[in-house]
Amino acid sequence: MKKDIHPSNYRLVVFKDMSNGEMFLCKSAAEAKDTIEYEGVKYPLVKMEISSSSHPFYTGKVKLVDTAGRVDKFLNKYKKFQK
């Protein structure tokens, strides 16, 4: 890493997913008002609404849209304009 390019508050921070309680430790310059004890050490706490542990795309709970049915409906609607 280059010297003197990171913000002065670049440090270890705990990010907490508020929807499921999952926490992870990462370096960040994010503003944190709260602190939390994580693995026996106090760190600044950044609260998040959603993370990869709760996002539907990453958890496999995504609802798929029936795109094939939509395409067929579109083609049937505009069939008379085809050459």
Sum this structure up briefly.
By secondary structure, this protein is an alpha+beta fold.
Description of the molecule:
The chain is α+β, with helices and mostly antiparallel strands. The chain has one domain. 18% of the residues lie in helices and 31% in strands. The protein contains 2 helices and 4 strands. Strands 2-1-4-3 form a 4-stranded mixed sheet, with no helix packed on it. The longest helix is centred in the last third of the chain and has 11 residues, at 67-77.
Radius of gyration: 23 Å
What is the ordering of alpha helices and beta strands?
Answer: EEEEHH
**Count the helices. How many?**
2
- What is the strand tally? 4
Overall mean pLDDT score?
A: 82
Strand order of the largest sheet: 2-1-4-3
Q: What amount of the residues lies in strands?
A: 25-35%
The portion of residues assigned to helices is 10-25%
Query: Largest sheet at a glance?
Result: 4 strands, mixed
